[in-house]
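Pasting as-is:
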Amino acid sequence: MARKRKSGGKTGSSKGRYKRVQCSKCGRSVPRSKAKVVTTRTRLVDSRMHKELKKEGTIILGGSHRKYLCISCAVHSGVVSQRAEEERK
């Protein structure tokens, strides 16, 4: 049977099985090597306050939020794009 991708659509080494994570959009269970990871940074203060505090020289820490997306949700939300057939292998 013909293969579409050399890697089988997964990233990482030949470890075998990976833990499954849940997609943040649709809730589908996906292997961690196959899921796309999106990290978003959050600020604890609004933008005007952030500018004023930066002028004073204070260090403002922010949080980060990690989301796992399945392939179909990542394509739908524009995180990744489909490649041409020639570029796939």
